[in-house]
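Hey team,

Filing this mostly as a record. A colleague (T.K.) asked me to run one chain through the structure pipeline before their review meeting, and I want the input and output archived in the tracker in case anyone asks later how it was produced. No errors, nothing strange. Just documentation.

Input sequence:
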Amino acid sequence: MRNLWAGAISFGLVNIPVRLYPATEQRGPAFRQVHREDGGKISFRRVCTACGRDIPYAEVAKGYERPGGDVVLLSDEELAGLPRERTHRIDVLSFTRAHQIDPILAARSYYLEPEESATPAYLVFREALRRTGKVAIATVTLRQRESLAWLRARDGVLVLHTLLRPGEIRAADFPFLDPGTEVLRPELALATALIDAMTAEFGPAAHQDRYRAELEDLIRAKVSGAGEHAAPDDDDPAGPAGPGGPGAPEPGLAGTLRASLAAARSRRAPV
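Output structure:
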């Protein structure tokens, strides 16, 4: 892997030099936009609205558009000279429990690798987080943007997760949230029982990407010249064979929940 950034974790008076790497990647076939008639690849031009010329990337700059439409140009050198950009530090502010961080704030994840000379300090910090069961709240500036972040120990490595700011989260403003809207009590008891019956340890590796598999089958069939591709068996318990399929339950939410609960309990019953 190629590191994206190099700096240091600032923990009290301790500085731990580290390199930052992306921890995730997109998998699966990638699509391109093409011309439907001849399959030609679609390209996108950088055109200046002022002079109408095609602009090479080397001539592209960053600009801030003011409310009146005027643009303030900012050079890469000016942005790199900002105090926070120059620090290249992950500043640890405090420590907390991971469950106090709302998942909706999650943005990106990165691995942190220590510089060789900083390995002892890195391992001490990692073990201290692991033993206390806490995570570090920090700030970091990446790509001209200061982000709130949290650090945790995972599989022997420190992982940095950048967080969105609260102002970047849209408010959930929907009519059904009216305080006068009542929850159906009998159905609530059935739904709670169904949740209990379907509760299991989460193992992401056990959940296959069925859409990706179907897409790859389709692409292979097209490449081989086959007109059709076989559809996979649908083993989704909520699919046609589940509630609403053959032997449909009594109508209404309560009846559907009872049938779902019976199906869930039968699947978990010992053979």
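Quick notes for T.K.: The first helix runs from residue 76 to 80. The radius of gyration is 27 Å.
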